[in-house]
Amino acid sequence: MLELGRLEDLPESYRAALTAHNLVPLWPSLRAVLPPGKPIPRTRPTCWSYETLRPLLIQAGELTPIEKAERRVLVLANPGHGLEKMQASSSIYLGMQLLLPGEIAPAHRHTPNAVRLIVEGEGAYSTVDGEKCEMRRGDLILTPTGLWHEHGHDGDEPVVWLDVLDLPLVYYMEASYVEEGELQAVNGDGGARAYLRGGVVPSPVFERRDQRYPMLHYPWADVRAALNALAEAEPDLEAVQVAYVNPENGGDCENILGFSALMLRPGETLALPARSPAMVFHLIEGGAEVTIDDAVFPLSEADTCCAPGYSPVLLSNRSAELPTYLFIADESPLHKKLGVYEVRR
Ligand code: GTQ
Questions:
Q1: Residue of the nearest CA to atom 10 in ligand 1?
Q2: What are the φ/ψ torsions at residue 16 (nearest 5 degrees)?
Q3: Number of domains in the chain
Q4: For residue 205, is pLDDT > 90?
Q5: Residue 1 alpha carbon to ligand 1 centre in Å
Q6: Mean pLDDT value of segment 229-257
Q7: Ligand 1 atom with the shortest distance to the CA of 93
Q8: Is residue 324 within 8 Å of residue 309, measured between CB atoms?
Q9: Residue 307 domain-assigned?
Q10: d(CA 71, ligand 1 centre) in Å
Q11: Atom 11 in ligand 1: residue holding the nearest Cα
Q12: Predicted local confidence at residue 64, as pLDDT
C-alpha cells in the first residue's frame, strides 16, 4: 500500500489557510479512517470483576443517597475509549446499579434503549410502561426507547443489576435525551406470563397483538430451563445458545443491541468466529475462561468482560462436571440493519 503524504509535508501557511476556512486535507488521515483489511478498534478486551466492584458499589450506597444520584451506578468503562466516555465498546454502555431497600429510582424515559440483567438480591422491581417486573437473579428486563421506567425496592437486602444501554451510539447520534415523569400506575407484569410458552402467543378473538415490545421481562428460570432442554434434546449442537426475541415476530427484542444466553456444557470449549460487532459476556452461573485476542480472563459469577469486533473469542467452561451459563450482549442488530455485519471464519 502506498505511503501517503503527511501533514508536516505541507507548508505551514497552507495548513493555516485550510484551518482558517474549516478545511482539512484527507490524505494524511486516510489510512487512519480506512485502515487496510480490518478496523483498528479503540475497544480493548477488558474485564470487570464483581468481587472488586461490589464493595465500591456498596460504598456508593453509603456515600450518595438515591436522591443525589437518581440512578446509583458505577459505569464499566473501557480504558481504550477513555474512562470519561463511559463506554464498553463503540455502541455499548455497561453499568452496575445499586438500589437499597425502600429506595425508588424515579420514573423517566429516554431515547437510548436499556436492559437490566439482575445480579444479586431479592425484592426490587422495575415498572416499565405500567408493567411491574419483579427482579430475580439472572432475569432480563427491557426498557426500550421511549418507555417510562422506574425502579423500586420492597425487600430487605441490597439489589444490584447490570445495565446495558446503546447510550454511546445514541449520544454520538446527538439523539440522547431524557424526560422526567410521575410514579406509574401498575397494570401488568411485563408479559412474562402471557408469553411463557414458545410457539403460542396471545391471540384474543384471533387478533394478534401489535405492540412493538410485547414482552419486557424474561425470567431466568425459563431461559435456564430452555438452555437445559436444548442441550438435552440436541447433544451435537455447535452452541447451546438462545436469543432474547420479540415473541410476536421472532425478531431481536430491541432495535440496536442483541441479547442471548449461552450454556457451556461441562468441559466445553467454544470458539466463536470473529464477527464485526463488539460483544459483552456476563457470567450468570458457573465459571469460564474467556480468551479475546491475547487477553485471557477467568470469569466467576457476576463478572463481566467485553470483546472488540473482528476478534475471535474462545469460551471455556472451567468445570468438567457442571454447566456454565453466560449472558451475552452484542451490537449485531445494529450491524445487520446498517449492512456492515460480517463473520470471518
Ligand atoms: O436505570 O434508567 O445505568 O437511565 C444509565 C441510565 C441506568 C436507568 C443507567 C439510566 C439508567
A1: 71
A2: -65, -40
A3: 1
A4: no
A5: 45
A6: 97
A7: 3
A8: no
A9: yes
A10: 6
A11: 71
A12: 98
Q: Across the strands, what pairs with 252?
A: 245
**pLDDT above 90 for 104:** yes
Cβ 71 under 6 angstroms from ligand 1? yes
Query: Is 73's C-beta closer than 6 angstroms to any atom of ligand 1?
Result: yes
Query: Residue 301 belongs to what domain range?
Result: 46-196+208-344
Judging by beta carbons within 10 Å of its beta carbon (0-12, 13-18, 19+), is residue 19 exposed, middle or buried?
exposed
| pLDDT computed for residue 253 by the predictor | 98
Is the pLDDT reported for residue 111 higher than 90? yes
* Atom in ligand 1 nearest the alpha carbon of residue 178: 4
Phi, psi of 31, rounded to the nearest 5 degrees: -70, -25
Query: Please, are residues 310 and 275 in contact by the beta-carbon 8 Å criterion?
Result: yes
The domain spanning residue 113 has which CATH number?
2.60.120.10
Compute how many other C-beta atoms are within 10 angstroms of the C-beta atom of residue 181: 13
Residue type, position 19, single letter:
T
Specify the ligand 1 atom closest to the Cα of 116. Answer: 1
Residue 13 within a domain: no
> Which contiguous run of DSSP H or E holds residue 13?
helix 12-20
The atom of ligand 1 lying closest to the CA of 75 is: 3
The predicted pLDDT at position 336 comes to: 98
The answer as to whether 17 is a domain residue is no
Give 229's pLDDT tier (boundaries 50, 70, 90).
very high
What type of residue sits at position 115? V
Span from the CA of 223 to the centroid of ligand 1 (angstroms): 24
Ligand 1 centroid, distance to 272 Cα (angstroms)? 30
Nearest atom in ligand 1 to 110's CA: 4
Is 252 exposed, middle or buried (CB count within 10 Å of its CB: 0-12, 13-18, 19+)?
Answer: buried
Q: Is position 9 within any domain?
A: no
